[in-house]
Amino acid sequence: MIRLITCLRRKESISHQEFRKYWDDATFAGLMDKAATVLKPVKHARCLSLQVGANIKIMESRGSDEPYDGIIEWWWESATQLAPLLNTSQAQSLILEIQAYQKQFADFDRSPSFFTEA
User: Fold this and answer.
1) Model pTM score
2) Half-sphere CA count of 101, side-chain side, radius 13 A
3) pLDDT tens digits, residue range 42-75?
4) CATH of 2-117, one of 3.30.70.100, 3.30.420.10, 3.30.450.40, 2.160.20.10
């Protein structure tokens, strides 16, 4: 099983509430649904970080940065399952469309995206 994980940080110029507004917008939900149809993951999820005191305590105890504002995860059985899907013009176009939407609210320089093995 492989996973693609994207950890998004909001642009410093927008508030947590504004980030959530973009995140919860029907446009973003539609793009994610379309990506699920095109990329055929076994599973996918969009998760928002909670704005709770427990997160501040964890951050302080570890001496770490604040949590990511949102995380997107996609699961596939294998890289060989995913590779042909990613190489289609439809997938490439959709990825660009998703990135263009995310650039409105996410700071890409501080938002890593990476594959893992489960």
Assistant:
1) 0.89
2) 17
3) 999 999 987 777 878 887 888 878 889 999 999 9
4) 3.30.70.100
